[in-house]
Amino acid sequence: MPITTARVATARPARYLRQLVSHMGHKAAAALTPDGRGTITVAAGTCSLTPSPDRLELTATAADAESLARVQDVITRHLLRFATQEELTVEWSAPIDGGRLEPTDPVVAAYLLDHHTPADDVLGELAVATRDAAADAAHMQVSADEGALLTMLTRLVGARFAVEIGVFTGYSALCIARGLADGGRLLACDVSEDWAAIGKPYWERAGVADRIDLRLAPALETLSTLGTEPAIDIAFIDADKDNYPAYYEEIVRRLRPGGLVVLDNVFLGGRVLDPAYQEDHHLAMRRLNDLITTDERVDSVMLPVRDGITIARRR
Q1: Terminal CA-to-CA distance of the chain, rounded, Å?
Q2: Where in the sequence is the domain holding 205, given as residue range(s)?
Q3: Do residues 145 and 231 lie in contact, with contact meaning Cβ atoms separated by under 8 Å?
Q4: How high is the mean pLDDT in each 10-residue block of the chain (315 residues)?
Q5: What is the largest CA-CA distance in the chain?
Q6: CATH code, domain carrying 274
Q7: Residue 58 CB partners (closer than 8 Å, separation 6+)
Q8: R_g (Cα) of the chain, nearest Å
């Protein structure tokens, strides 16, 4: 379950952070980033520390409530010990389950949807058709603002060859295909003919059906037919999460320099942030998120867009 936070008002946030990281580094894993943030990992769990002008922000995570309490106690005791020139108050929020996290508040989410280039009738009607046909599964379709982002990124890299892993009803495929340069092609990989069939009429109406090569087979098999030349300009991964690390590897090794890979759902509804979740797809996504951060082949950024998006650019 647990994630908890504390905002500690202080005029010396950076000083206390450095002291904590330095002191705890003798007995735990502690690190300071170049921009002044810190991470302390003890046996019970982890605490991240972020300085702001007038406060020190703490976020603690652990696998269970008892372990979380130990993390809170360790950090609180040491922080108060260092505060010899002022009286600090450390009040931790009630623990919450990672599955309850909202990457964006519903009010913010609604505002974002109201403030991007609007989806046209074809995309809007495809979204409605997906909701009608998919019911509870309709959440697998990307949102309108995420679709607009995919079109923009595709245009920005001047993509002529794109790959999509996970088509569902074809909304994101349509968005990517619209962004392709003249003569461009999208290789769309999925295993469900029924879901993809919902999108095909809308691809036709949008005038992009001739740009989309739909392959109904396991994506790793399809990717293996491409050879190893770095020819992909942009790729979008939004399929079964257990295989994300394998999809990422197969894509990155085929990305041309300057090419992009975009990964959806990197938060898994907030569960990736919560170490209590230990199913295979949670573990796979955590490993991949950590890998991308240190992958010397790419530069990357993770964005709190919907359920989390990572964009990695091939060096």
Answers
A1: 38
A2: 106-314
A3: no
A4: 89 91 88 87 92 90 93 95 91 88 71 85 91 84 93 98 97 98 97 95 97 97 93 97 97 98 95 92 96 97 93 98
A5: 70
A6: 3.40.50.150
A7: 5, 6, 7, 8, 47, 48, 49, 75, 90, 92
A8: 22
